[in-house]
Design brief:
The complex is a heterodimer of chains A (115) and B (111). Chain A is mostly beta strands and 115 residues long. Chain A has no helices and eleven strands. In chain A, strands 2, 4, 5, 6, 9, 10 and 11 form a seven-stranded mixed β-sheet that branches. In chain A, a hairpin with a 2-residue loop joins strand 5 and strand 6. The radius of gyration of chain A is 13 Å and the shape is globular. Chain B is mostly beta strands. Helices cover 0% and strands 57% of the residues of chain B. Chains A and B meet through strand 10 of A and strand 5, strand 9 and strand 10 of B.
Chain lengths: 115, 111
Amino acid sequence: NAGVTQTPKFRVLKTGQSMTLLCAQDMNHEYMYWYRQDPGMGLRLIHYSVGEGTTAKGEVPDGYNVSRLKKQNFLLGLESAAPSQTSVYFCASIKTRTANTGELFFGEGSRLTVL
Amino acid sequence: KNQVEQSPQSLIILEGKNCTLQCNYTVSPFSNLRWYKQDTGRGPVSLTIMTFSENTKSNGRYTATLDADTKQSSLHITASQLSDSASYICVVSGEGNKLVFGAGTILRVKS
């Protein structure tokens, strides 16, 4: 039981390049989230998914796209990376029925630098 | 506006001492409040989850309190250890399970 696994852990991109971050969870959770964490700020929600095949925008969705083709995977894509997207990205998941009080599990983070 | 404010921003204490971290929130309606510990370079790990009806919850040397009337929570760490050095994040859940994260308090425990 690995929990929430993110790949890659580190990546350096040039402005305008594209990339995809992969999040995989083996806990059969319905809800999955992508956050970004910047110095001095709380985690901010980029996109989330309440189930396979569904996605929704969070508070900072611009410049990102997501897909949830399989229940266990949640992909975050950057089509044309910008320096403002330099950040640490965290994926998280939680069970649906206990979404209100259950534990939110986080991955270890993916550090992205855009030059 | 739904906000979570944590204080202090950072704190340095000696090993073995106690400390208390504060969290004030304006999230409404309130559903639950969580405290997370985030080690440097790692993802946040849950310490406690408290609902509206809970005043106190402990997890080993960590004790969280909640006053839903004043919209304040605290995290008390007893007999601190070097491994307690981390960022502690307060997260409040509001309407529709929307989570609002505080910026965190960075704790450093010195020997």
